[in-house]
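Weekly sync notes, structure subgroup
Attendees: PM, AL, DS (notes)

Item 1: joint prediction request from the bench team. They want all two components modeled as one assembly rather than separately. Inputs as received:
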Amino acid sequence: MKIITISREFSSGGRELGRRLADTLGFDYYDREIISRVAENEGMSERYVESILEKGLPQSVSITFRHSFSTPLVMEQPQTKLVHAQCEVIRSIARAGRDCVIVGRNADVILKEEHPFTIFVCASDEAKIRRCRERATDGERLSDKELMKNMRRIDKNRRNTCEIISDIAWGDAHCYDLVVNTTDWDIKELTVPVAEYARRWFDTHPKAKH
Amino acid sequence: MKIITISREFSSGGRELGRRLADTLGFDYYDREIISRVAENEGMSERYVESILEKGLPQSVSITFRHSFSTPLVMEQPQTKLVHAQCEVIRSIARAGRDCVIVGRNADVILKEEHPFTIFVCASDEAKIRRCRERATDGERLSDKELMKNMRRIDKNRRNTCEIISDIAWGDAHCYDLVVNTTDWDIKELTVPVAEYARRWFDTHPKAKH
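Output from the run, pasted for the record:
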């Protein structure tokens, strides 16, 4: 089984890169599907699950969360409960044993023992704002400053959750196999060499094959 | 003209990657050759030039250095003078107009306007210690702790010099096109996808071709 995980800054193009990588390599692709499964398992709406998970984990749970997933006091908090449920869904995906690309949701940390090929995707602020506007729904009404503020908040939540459930410094190149800067790239073009990089990694890292 | 610059942590394999990339792509290769040219231009021994440049720039010169290369007081310091001479050699390499790989020496910053493809190479501490021992001359007699201390000192000097002569945060993925983690890679194997990545970059970034 080959697993590629993609951690990414908000609006860096990581999701598109993940989807295209999965297409190119013929791997399964997981992103929002994880939210759907968590919602189904917990009997909650997808929108609710997403809104809670987007907040990240509160700093206060850090020590407890890392040492035990089941302390009753902590488990009562919806964020902690759903992050835990999300871990379980990600582990069940790995148990299915199919080659896959998983975007976000700390899959790199959760599936560490499966030896995934781990990618971090970043971009310049200007490129992220541009991408944000291209996808814009309500983004159109926001100033660059407001967009940046939103992006920073989302990334801060991602960083917090990552650093609470692991020893990984989110975005630090030492914690990933490859860090890709998408600034000035067309993601379709970029997919070609990243897929080649991943292929070569799986070919030369036998541990990752099992 | 296509230029690839490689910035790297000490003992991360960046130099080997650079040499192999140059071989694979048929590019010229510059690393120690730059020291030789600086020594020749300044009428100094290579060993002396190298020992001075290894120290990096002292923090005290930062503002002056960035705003002017020619303030007499600062130019009297051998480190500043030689960093400046090194910049000149790197610019003259670019003026020659041949495709090349340049390892270290802040070529990414100095040649920014030539639109180089910029790579940063890092590795885990364990991998760097292993590589250091494989190349060992006097390294054999040092403990892991002593090796780490030396590596950190050299990287600190590289970081300082980079951050004095530019706005770049040394090692921050946003400041490079690609960050490669060599941990667990055989550099020969790694060269294949990195060369493919660089080829694709030059194919899709017309500005970099001129």
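Discussion: The beta strands of chain A are 3-8, 28-30, 100-103, 117-122, 178-181.
Action: AL to compare against the crosslinking data before next sync.
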